[in-house]
Design brief:
single chain, alpha/beta, 5-stranded mixed beta sheet, 5 helices, 14 strands, 33% strand
Length: 279
């Protein structure tokens, strides 16, 4: 995958002299090697202003992005319109891990130092989840398993043989090398098409659902939800609880992998995931 930008354009807990909210655009890449920020007066919030800001970002960026991800659905039309004018596709996604970390830092460090700071509650971006969908029959793995790797095992991740997938730096999360990172591996003789299909879904996170019936859910895109596996017995349900507990200890970081069989040394698919509190 080429360069991806993560973008947020929304009001901040800051007001101007007329007590109008100040807005801000944030743009970064998944490693935060490139960052761009600019405040916007409340009276100038429109796709034209955003387009001009994105042009400024493009002028100083090492390279233009292949696409832009954003998580605030209320801003969908404005962001998509501004990006389209620049020839860049933009889509809602919960795979905005670097942007989330940056926003949390700015809430704690930057905004409180600004004139007009008001510690107000930011409007929620939560929305109703989509109905659960079953995986297409041809893409259901024959086997799957809960697994775990220490964070230190991901140091040489760039050297792994992976056909489809997407990862991010665990360094920005601040996990210790000994932290167990839970995951799920799917085994299938159709590993390649399964991984290829998943690569187009904007994978967000995995979440056990105790039901009934108990199941493992794959969340993708802005709000899509898929039944990845049914947890049919007490042992699987106990493993799912352990998976959820390990996620909590690892700041919700986990992974999903696809292999042809348990003896395979390569991955048809591998994604690092993190469940974010996008409130």
């Amino acid at each position: 995958m080429g360069t991806v930008w993560e973008l947020d354009f929304y009001s901040r807990p800051i007001v101007d002299e007329q007590q109008k909210k100040i807005w801000e655009v944030l743009v970064c890449d998944p490693e935060r090697t490139f960052e761009y920020s600019k405040f916007c007066p409340g009276g100038q919030v429109n796709s034209g202003w955003l387009q001009a800001a994105l042009q400024e970002a493009l002028a100083i960026a090492p390279q233009a992005p292949e696409k832009i991800r954003f998580f605030r659905r209320p801003m969908h039309n404005m962001i998509v319109r501004a990006a389209q004018e620049l020839g860049i596709p933009a889509q809602p996604s919960r795979r905005t891990f670097a942007l989330y970390q940056w926003l949390q830092q700015r809430v704690q460090i930057v905004y409180p130092t600004q004139p007009g700071f008001q510690p107000l509650v930011t409007p929620s971006v939560r929305y109703e989840s989509s109905p659960l969908q079953p995986l297409p029959d041809a893409l259901i793995g024959q086997q799957w398993a809960f697994v775990s790797l220490e964070a230190s095992a991901f140091v040489d991740l760039p050297e792994w043989s992976i056909d489809f997938g997407e990862v991010f730096s665990l360094g920005m999360i601040g996990l210790t090398p000994e932290t167990p990172i839970p995951g799920v591996i799917i085994y299938s003789p159709r590993a390649q098409p399964l991984a290829a299909w998943m690569s187009g879904l904007e994978l967000a996170f995995l979440s056990p659902d105790q039901g009934p019936p108990a199941k493992l859910i794959l969340e993708t895109g802005a709000s899509d939800r898929w039944v990845l596996a049914n947890l049919k017995d007490a042992q699987l349900q106990a493993e799912a609880q352990g998976f959820a507990a390990a996620k909590q200890q690892a700041q919700q970081v986990h992974f999903l992998a696809v292999q042809s069989d348990p003896a395979a040394n390569t991955f048809a698919g591998f994604w690092l995931l993190q469940e974010l509190d996008l409130a």
